[in-house]
Amino acid sequence: MGIFGRKRRTEGGSAGRHAAPEADDTIEDEAYDDEDSELSDVSDGPFDVADFDDDGVPRIDLGSVKVPVPDGSQVQVEMDPETGGVRAVHVVTEQGQITVSAYAAPRSGGLWREVSTELAEQLRADGAKVNIGRGKWGLEISAIVGDVALRFVGVDRPRWMLRGVIAGPQSEAAGAVEVLREIVRRTIVDRGDAPMPVRTPLTITLPEAVAEHIAAQQQQG
Known about the structure:
Helices cover 19% and strands 31% of the residues. The protein is built from three helices and eleven strands; from the N terminus they run ββββββαββββαβα. The strands form two sheets. It has a seven-stranded antiparallel beta sheet with strand order 4-5-6-10-9-8-7, with helices on both faces. It has a four-stranded mixed beta sheet with strand order 1-11-3-2.
């Protein structure tokens, strides 16, 4: 299922590049400091729905997040076989599969620092080669798992945190970073006003047409 969006950024995406982050983008675990507990700059996205003015960029509306989908990419819906609900929605690009998720967070920020520390430890425990670096919003994690290159970014805002990850071939890793950052930057988050515990995933809902398409496929299957 293809959904049209703005022109895909292609710089840095040529095959043959390898997955290790650029030398000036990789630092050791001492990267974690007090700055990482602060809210990141809110001036250039991702945006809270209450503060966002329509920019004309086509997005898929998933309820809690409205995610841009680059031209030439596709959307894949991952269902939970136990509950029948939506587990995740992925944007599949030439550089890899991107997943954007939003969570309830403190007003003061700092959740991404906690989550990224745990994530890096878990990746290392699973045998991945992990590097901690810095990007537009602060800490980023890159990891190599077998033949797959992973990149994680996180953005802290008042009352929500947005996490994005791209998984793809190592040959596309350099270009994948910019594709991921651009999608995260243009994502809109609708946290809602209801109180909820920190780290609670914000609910994903599907557009009616997509939900009907999946239901029809399930009936046929």
